[in-house]
Amino acid sequence: MNKERLKGSDAYQEYKKQELIFGMMKTFLAVAISLGIVFIIIAIFSDNPIAAAASFIGGPFSSLRRFGNMIEASIPLIFTGLAACIMFQAQQFSLIGDGAFYLGPLAAIAFSLSFPDQGLLNTIISILLGGIVGAACGVFPGFLKAKWNTNEFVVSMMFNYVITFFGLYILLNKLRDPGSGFVASFALSKTVRLARIIPGTKVHSGLFIALAMVVLCTVFIYRTRFGFAIRMTGSNIKFARYIGVNTFLVVFMVQVIGGLLAGIGGTVELLGMYDRYQWTATLGLGFDGMTVAILAANNPALVPFGALFLAYVRVGTEVMARVNNVPTETVYLIQGFAMLLITASGFLVRWRHKMTVKSAARRAV
């Protein structure tokens, strides 16, 4: 019996190893093919395709400022990527992270402006408050999904409009600085803002908060009972109910947790990059977070790499657009092709089948 258990355990471990290798190879090839297609398009439409491709590849590393831009752009993507990862683990495809990223920092700045001289304590409470308001954004779509199995994608997308116009009302009527030349809140105190950590760039200490959240989310998903319940619900919700998982709570809470992470991310972005709140619409980071989560294969530990790659592509296309006649919208082609290939169930399926057959043959011997 022990030998049979050991053999079964070895087979499972080999299966997990194969799944990891297959996922990494699928993501790598999808990204490579996407870049290849984009380079072909650049070669067709650019006056100097070699210079355009070179500026795209090396642009983010051509100066400290551009390298900093890449790191700066990856920080909010880490938060929204983690939010999407948590929801994807339970097979929930929600855009509530977009609204939470917008509304969370608005509540944080309202608190910060009320207590401007509290320094670090103000910063900590503002970030926590932004997370709480972001979590509250996930309550409505989460409850509807858990209670009546409504389409969370549609509900969250529509609810984001409610969040946006509510936030805009608060900004225009309660927090707007009449002395500002554009629509923006009163300025934040310098003692509240996050410190810069790389001179000559805008890279701020929010990077450490983002990486800490990566560790916490990884432990939460893979080392806690509720994380197991989330993964089991996403794998097979009927079986999860059968073994006693409270699937109502899981479906509800993943939306709330996703909103929490996005709300913290929005507040960190505000305190690290801006001196006042000036967003009059959501930033579209809900979709970007989904892209990062897909690149990371729904693994929170891999989210920083997915976020960094997407930030690299964006900075590269911006550099390329400045020195060549290639538009920055090229980045959306790369995102689109990569997502299509990674999510395509038939992509590399024959190679995966061969891997499984060879593995089974080795175990049979």
How would you portray this structure in words?
With 365 residues, the chain is mainly α. Helix content is 75%, strand content 0%. The protein has one domain: ABC transporter involved in vitamin B12 uptake, BtuC. The protein is built from 15 helices and no strands. The longest helix is centred in the first third of the chain and has 44 residues, at 2-45. The chain is globular. The model is unreliable at 3-8 (pLDDT under 50).
Ranges where pLDDT stays below 50 over 5 or more residues in a row are 3-8
Helicity, as a percent range: over 70%
Structural class: mainly alpha
Number of alpha- plus pi-helical segments: 15
In short:
The two termini are 19 Å apart.
Summarize this structure as a short list of keywords or feature phrases:
globular; mainly alpha; single chain; ABC transporter involved in vitamin B12 uptake, BtuC; 15 helices; 365 residues; disordered N terminus; 75% helix
Write the layout of secondary structure elements.
Elements: H1 2-45, H2 49-58, H3 64-89, H4 96-114, H5 120-137, H6 139-148, H7 152-175, H8 206-223, H9 225-235, H10 237-242, H11 247-273, H12 285-295, H13 303-323, H14 330-343, H15 349-364
Helix pairs in contact: 1-2, 1-14, 1-15, 2-13, 3-8, 3-11, 3-12, 3-13, 4-5, 4-7, 4-11, 4-12, 5-11, 6-7, 6-11, 8-9, 8-11, 9-11, 12-13, 13-14
